[in-house]
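Much of what follows relies on a compact textual record of a protein's fold. A record is reproduced here so that you can trace the correspondence yourselves:
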Amino acid sequence: MTAVSSTAGGGAGPQNVFMDQFNLEARTQRVWDINHAIWFTLMGVGGGVFLAGRILNLTEGLGYVLGIPTVDVVSFLAIAVGGAILVADLGRPLQAWRAFVNVRTSWISWGAWSDLIFLVMAGLLVLPALSLGGSEPFSGLGWDPHGGDGGGLALEIIAGVAAVVVMTYAGAVLARPRAIPYWNSPAVPLQFLLSSAAMSVAVVMLIEVIAGEPVTAGQMVLLGLLTAALTVAVVVHLLARTDAPGKKESLDRLLRGQYRSMFVWGVFASGTVAPAVLAFAGAVVGVSGARDALAVICCVLLVPGGFWLRLLTLRVGIFPPVHIPSVSGPRMAAP
């Protein structure tokens, strides 16, 4: 930050008694970093795995943990760990309740409530299936844990809507304020949503392979479409408002500066474009084993790529430079 003041020559008085111009250089935000990137990633995968397992009808064929479908257990663990990281990062965990009190104006409150609603509704949904010591103590609750009746379907729909918000709200939190131009774009929540969906489908396919079930061509097409859409969203965001103060500095850091290699080769090429190509290739390959191998490779590329997409998005959050030009004050009359 620089403040410059001057006095006019030839006996004239000061142009401005405080300063003639004020310059504030572009600054990188320091609040959001790796803990938040881990949190965003886990929430995206947690909500997405639940949705993918239900939409693709894979809850009953991929194994169980204590009677609960494996895909649901993975979903619950991801969101629970992500929530624990968030609470620990707050610095005052006992005041975490404050995140719930501003629903009308805060995406963070929307996210906190969505996390809670998801865990409660999805937990209730699968509770009748819980097996402890060979018995199912909650089997008499009266609804199908797979959503096959009215009660189970209602819980499944509520949990699914909450899961969509869980996948999206992290990007919405970043996109709403105008102070950081690179974040202030609908492309940011769109990227996070598409990345979460792609990672989640890939994780579910990994669970399929581990369970000995074949990955289908349709699943690979779905993954290819999601990763292709993510590629387009990233490119559109990079090409929009490239000269805007603040975003220009963010793009310089991403594409030409210290994060160039990780973003271009790690996030974009390996973590987005390559999985899209491999997924479409897997859709047309005729050998089931080869398709399974490609699905595993896609998962291995997409999940780290999704994490780094979020982390680099946070790390190139830059406040634009500020320049207040000189304002000439009244000159004093010469004696």
In short: The domain at 27-319 is CATH 1.20.1630.10 (Formate dehydrogenase/DMSO reductase fold). Confidence is low (pLDDT under 50) at residues 1-15, 331-335. The two ends are 37 Å apart (CA to CA).
